[in-house]
């Protein structure tokens, strides 16, 4: 019996991700971040691409940063894995592979199941606006992390 | 996919035939951080054509435009179809105001305003292919059908649009989902949502959703009964209904416990039962635990109670108190209490299949109701299901009675040593019984009046001392059967 209860609770993971998918397609939010499934056929709704538009008045301005977000089976109980694809110099992002350090990003470090992919992307964008980040020298536009 | 807007239920906008393009027209919202425009375009058009329209509307050069949809940058050479851009969806736009190199557009080399030397066009395209090949699938298939699940939802969301008037089935789900995780009562509210019920009554969809969930797959591996259950849409629906009401869920679990307890009282059967359930419960617990990060409680649809500790002193409060002071609801109390009293002699609380928390049902019984008179009543009841039926008013009690009647059968099987080797069968039978019972109870509750639906809660409330039945009922209706919330309401309005 409790199996079914578990089942009922787990199905919501998919509901939730589908809902995030729809939000991404409808452009919920302020339009400075975008997200969607990496592969439309991904039934598990695991791999997502994200895009952050560099905030104005920072060194990231007008750049578009592509990311990969991976929502594991425990999402949204567990935070997603986030990785920059576009090269970026940002505190909390590994210089070598673009992986976002969970401890450096508050939304990931203190993850709550009410957070979403959008929240993570928006937080990363906010980090770009921080004093400690906004003037960091950046690699030439268009470069990507080698994975 | 050749789509006629007439067949797509989600299309609300007018289809404007534009001589300039073939195919159906769709209206796409183009959003910049500052601005938002709706642009009508043929759904077959390319990104370049789309940009043409956009550049007119936004008064910007085409090569200044960068379009983003669902986290991907749209290349001029792509088509809208390719990215799954449909009517009513939103595309993000960035207008590069400074003469930076554009993505996929004509090549320019210049310094960015931020001072970082810009790579020239030869490097830029790498960003584009990267963005668009990031998906890893290369050219996405022409048919950008969302996963089956989503198309299932698509249909249902249109249903919801019509039926509910809410913008978005998904939004509702999200809200509910969020709250669900933190607030168990939300589960019942969710289930009350006619939309959800709609979906629940689509067993194929539910099955799909469930089966594709990796956790479920694990579960299914460990417990083949689940696949069996999944193949039985009736059962699933029943489970869903059951899950609607957290109080019912608890009740169910307790009932199962009680049924087990009954069996326990039969000499020989007790041991077999215990063994059997130990076999079952272990894998279930570990399945539950690992999926929920050692928090079996979340597996139970949120908390059985707020702030629950995995101890035996699991909440007594929300437990419907059918075995309240014997005078209050004698019929129910006798029935349920007796079984717990029986188990009280069993002592320790090995967690049962339905009781991953190791709730000591007997402990509860003891605390609330330890009269040996109940035992005899219990026996009477098990001998005479009719008697119980007459006495019981709560729907679930009726089911419990059925289980009691059937239990002696099980018990005899249980005492059979072979039963221990067929735990899954026993389990399955028991579970099916339970589910049926509660389907009977749950299904019944769907059609009953609030008063009858909330009968159990009403009894609880009155057992707790809220004697104003009218007020109780009102509170329950207002809170949708949520006892705790109802109590708060009642306390808010009356000093006692």
What does this structure look like?
The complex is a heterodimer of chains A (147) and B (496). Chain A is built from three helices and four strands, in the order αββββαα. Chain A is of the alpha+beta class and 147 residues long. Chain A has a four-stranded antiparallel sheet with strand order 1-2-3-4. Chain B is mostly helical and 496 residues long. Helices cover 56% and strands 5% of the residues of chain B. Chain B has helices at residues 47-58, 124-133, 148-163, 169-182, 184-192, 194-200, 203-212, 214-222, 225-230, 233-244, 246-264, 269-292, 330-344, 361-368, 372-383, 385-391, 395-415, 417-421, 423-447, 450-453, 455-464, 469-479, 483-493, and strands spanning 25-31, 36-42, 65-69, 72-73, 90-95. A five-stranded mixed sheet of chain B has the order 2-1-5-3-4. In chain B, helix 13 crosses helix 14 and helix 17 (395-415) packs antiparallel against helix 19 (423-447). Chain B is elongated. The model of chain B is unreliable at 1-21, 99-186, 287-424 and 433-447 (pLDDT under 50). The chains are: A alpha+beta (147), B mainly alpha (496). Chains A and B meet through helix 1, strand 1, strand 2 and strand 3 of A and strand 3, strand 4, strand 5, helix 2 and helix 3 of B.
């Amino acid at each position: 019996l409790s199996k079914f209860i578990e089942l009922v609770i787990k199905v919501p993971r998919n509901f939730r991700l589908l809902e995030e998918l729809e939000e991404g397609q409808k452009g919920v939010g302020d339009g400075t971040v975008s997200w969607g499934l990496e592969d439309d056929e991904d039934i598990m709704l695991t791999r997502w691409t994200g895009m952050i538009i560099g905030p104005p008045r920072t060194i990231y301005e007008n750049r578009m940063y592509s990311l990969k977000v991976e929502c594991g089976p425990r999402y949204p109980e567990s935070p997603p894995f986030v990785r920059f694809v576009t090269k970026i110099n940002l505190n909390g992002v590994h210089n070598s592979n673009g992986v976002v350090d969970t401890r450096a990003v508050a939304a990931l470090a203190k993850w709550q199941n009410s957070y979403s992919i959008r929240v993570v992307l928006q937080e990363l964008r906010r980090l770009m606006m921080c004093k400690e980040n906004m003037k960091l020298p950046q690699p030439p536009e268009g470069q990507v992390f080698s994975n | 996919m050749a789509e006629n807007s007439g067949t797509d239920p989600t299309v609300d906008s007018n289809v404007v035939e534009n001589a300039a393009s073939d195919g159906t027209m769709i209206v796409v919202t183009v959003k910049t951080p500052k601005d938002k425009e709706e642009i009508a375009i043929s759904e077959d058009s390319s990104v370049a054509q789309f940009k043409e329209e956009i550049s007119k509307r936004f008064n910007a050069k085409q090569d200044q435009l960068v379009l983003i949809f669902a986290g991907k940058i749209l290349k001029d050479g792509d088509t809208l179809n390719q990215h799954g851009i449909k009517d009513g969806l939103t595309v993000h736009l960035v207008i590069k105001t400074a003469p930076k190199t554009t993505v996929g557009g004509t090549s320019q080399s210049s310094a960015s305003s931020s001072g970082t030397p810009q790579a020239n066009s030869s490097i830029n395209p790498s960003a584009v292919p990267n963005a668009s090949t990031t998906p890893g699938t290369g050219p996405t298939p022409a048919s950008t059908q969302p996963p089956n699940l989503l198309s299932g939802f698509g249909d249902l969301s249109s249903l919801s649009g019509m039926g509910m008037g809410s913008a978005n089935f998904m939004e509702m789900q999200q809200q509910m989902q969020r709250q669900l995780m933190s607030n168990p009562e939300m589960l019942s509210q969710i289930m009350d949502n006619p939309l959800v019920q709609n979906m629940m009554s689509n067993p194929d969809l539910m099955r799909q959703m469930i089966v594709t969930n990796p956790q479920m797959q694990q579960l299914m591996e460990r417990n083949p009964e689940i696949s069996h259950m999944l193949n039985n849409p009736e059962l699933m629906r029943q489970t869903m209904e059951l899950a609607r009401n957290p109080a019912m869920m608890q009740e169910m679990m307790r009932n199962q416990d009680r049924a087990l307890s009954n069996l326990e009282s039969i000499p020989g059967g007790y041991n077999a039962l215990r063994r059997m359930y130990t076999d079952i419960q272990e894998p279930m617990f570990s399945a539950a635990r690992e999926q929920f990060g050692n928090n079996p409680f979340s597996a139970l649809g949120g908390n059985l109670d707020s702030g629950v500790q995995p101890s035996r002193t699991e909440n007594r409060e929300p437990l419907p108190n059918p075995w309240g002071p014997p005078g209050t609801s004698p019929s129910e109390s006798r029935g349920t209490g007796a079984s717990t009293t029986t188990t009280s002699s069993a002592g320790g609380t090995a967690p049962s299949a339905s009781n991953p928390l190791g709730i000591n049902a007997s402990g509860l019984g003891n605390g609330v109701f330890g009269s040996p008179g109940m035992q005899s009543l219990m026996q009477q009841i098990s001998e005479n299901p009719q008697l119980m039926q007459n006495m019981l008013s709560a729907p679930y009690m009726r089911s419990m009675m059925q289980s009691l009647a059937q239990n002696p059968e099980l018990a005899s099987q249980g005492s059979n040593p072979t039963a221990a080797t067929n735990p899954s069968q026993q389990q399955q039978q028991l579970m099916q019984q339970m589910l049926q019972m509660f389907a009977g109870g749950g299904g019944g509750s769907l059609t009953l009046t609030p008063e009858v639906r909330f009968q159990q809660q009403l009894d609880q409330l009155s057992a707790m001392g809220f004697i104003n039945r009218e007020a109780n009922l009102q509170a329950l209706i207002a809170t949708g059967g949520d006892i705790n919330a109802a109590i708060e309401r009642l306390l808010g309005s009356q000093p006692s």
